[in-house]
Design a protein that fits this description.
The chain is of the alpha/beta class and about 260 residues long. The chain has eight helices and seven strands; from the N terminus they run βαβαβαβαβαβαααβ. Strand 5, helix 5 and strand 6 form a beta-alpha-beta unit. The protein binds nicotinamide-adenine-dinucleotide (NAD).
């Protein structure tokens, strides 16, 4: 398509780059011309994900844990060392944690989920924003979830963490007042992925769940694909979204409309 959003020469930093949504999104950003800095804690999968990028793409892979401030400062410094700027930050790494009702859930799990999904997102913005503010340009896209918009039984820590991501996004957008730095988040719904299967099967005591039971409350009557999330990130990253900041974009086949 000739009228697709182009991101030629933009520097895109992507965390959770080895996961389903991160990999698909960095592939699309690269296909549209961006240079990629791919960050994940899983070295093996990260290598594979970067290998799958279009041949023309300029890319750097960095193994880092988003919960460790020195790692976060390190991946930002590494990105700047190679490319001198950061135009797009897809702050996406996350975990679902254990699947259990609050009364049976462990506090260790609660802390761990908040540590990755909230502290990780906070640290990413803390270390990327100074560069974007100095450039007076940039787009941050945090990954929340529809679990950040509505309640979700058996994944209370995850839901709380994603509500927090929306709050962090809106607060950061306000802190960028008067600049050309925009901060938004996406709220994917049920995306065909390892994470969704873990949640659905975990809620069913480990037993498989018939697809109709999952689609039941989705007006689109199917799961979404990571390839349907990536273009929303590309849009928010682009100048086409120049008046969009502080927003939470649902990509959920209508799930939260009901
Ligand atoms: N899959 C879905 O249905 C769905 C729906 C809504 C939101 N989300 C969110 O989208 C994001 C990506 O999810 P996904 O489906 O691609 O999951 P995934 O498990 O495939 O990918 C997550 C990636 O994050 C990485 N990661 C986890 N903890 C990390 C840490 N401490 N430091 C660095 N990297 C770390 C993992 O190694 C993994 O590669 C997550 O934030 C998730 O909560 C997913």
């Amino acid at each position: 398509m000739t009228d697709s959003i182009r991101l030629d020469g933009r520097i895109a930093l992507v965390t959770g780059a080895a996961g389903v949504i991160g990999t698909e999104t960095m592939r699309l950003l690269a296909a549209r011309g961006a240079c990629i800095v791919a960050v994940d804690r899983d070295a093996e999968q990260l290598k594979l994900a970067v290998k799958g990028l279009p041949a023309h793409a300029e890319a750097l892979a960095i193994v880092a844990d988003v919960t460790r401030e020195d790692d976060v400062a390190g991946y930002v410094a590494h990105a700047l060392g190679k490319f001198s700027r950061i135009d797009i930050f897809f702050n996406n790494a996350g975990i679902e944690g254990e699947i259990a009702p609050i009364v049976r859930a462990s506090v260790e799990n609660f802390r761990r989920v908040l540590e990755v999904n909230v502290v990780g997102v906070f640290l990413g913005m803390k270390h990327v924003l100074p560069t974007m503010l100095k450039q007076n340009s940039g787009s941050i896209i945090n990954t929340a979830s529809i679990a950040g918009v509505i309640g979700s039984a058996d994944i209370a820590a995850y839901s709380a963490s994603k509500h927090a991501v929306i709050g962090l996004t809106k607060s950061a957008a306000q802190e960028c007042t008067g600049t050309n730095v925009r901060v938004n988040c996406i709220c994917p719904g049920m995306i065909d992925s390892r994470m969704l299967s873990a949640i659905v099967v975990g809620r069913n005591n480990g037993a498989p769940v018939p697809p109709e039971k999952v689609y039941d409350r989705i007006p689109a009557r199917r799961l979404g694909l990571a390839a349907e999330v990536a273009p929303i990130v590309a849009f928010l990253a682009s100048d086409d979204a120049s008046y969009v900041s502080g927003s939470a974009y649902t990509v959920d086949g209508g799930r939260t409309a009901s």
